[in-house]
Design goal:
This protein is mainly α and 251 residues long. The chain has a single domain, classed as Transmembrane di-heme cytochromes, Chain C (Fumarate Reductase Cytochrome B subunit). Helix content is 63%, strand content 0%. α1 packs parallel to α9 (189-204), α2 (46-71) packs antiparallel against α4 and α4 runs antiparallel to α6 (125-150). The chain is globular, with a radius of gyration of 24 Å. The N and C termini lie far apart (79 Å).
Length: 251
Amino acid sequence: MKSYETFIWVVLPYVALAVFAVGMFWRYRYDRYGWTTRSSQMYESRLLRWGSPLFHYGILLALGGHVIGLLVPESWTSAAGISETTYHVVAVALGTVAAIMVVTGLTILIYRRRTVGRVFTVTTRMDKLMYVVLAAVILLGAWNTIGVNLLDVSGKYSGGYNYRDSVAVWFRSLFVLQPDASGMAGAPPSFQLHAVAAMVLVALTPFTRLVHIFSAPVGYPSRPYLVYRSRDPRQQASREPGAGWEPTRKA
């Protein structure tokens, strides 16, 4: 194996994970108030109403496919009575739906961010870089699903490329600290570029708005009530305080 292949498929994954871990700790420790999507819904909602659900639901569907395809060995699905042909047909069908949803949603969101002046004004340099890398990951993934596995545009992979024998093996080997780069080194170029772009995106995540995907409203049910009071003294005097609350006394 060539030295640059060893760097890409053995060293780079751990570098990306290290940057991700340190970056997430730093962001949570020193920029907790910046841990947000910086929502721009107040500036424009019509395009967002279409683009955001398509993008997010498509991403969830695509991530589900990646979890099964990369983390579940082929031997397990075969033992469950699912043939590779059946798995391939279902994976390509759902992957195509996910690809169409994600690409359409991302196109709407990028168009909105670029053409709506107020939204573009609050777009940072890191946002722009994130969109470029994210678009590369998504478009390469869509090409792998539709161009390679569905249509076989190159004519080299009749029936689709079986990434479970190569890419998935490499991916799982990283987590047991015994990286096997041989399969990844022989994968189609589009699969290789997709993996590299994904590693770059992982390293960038702590420094972008993508950190919001690691947030969950766990404390929402137990948080204190937010009390809203009118500034108009006439309205204050005309309303009785709710149960459990004491009226505000003026000094």
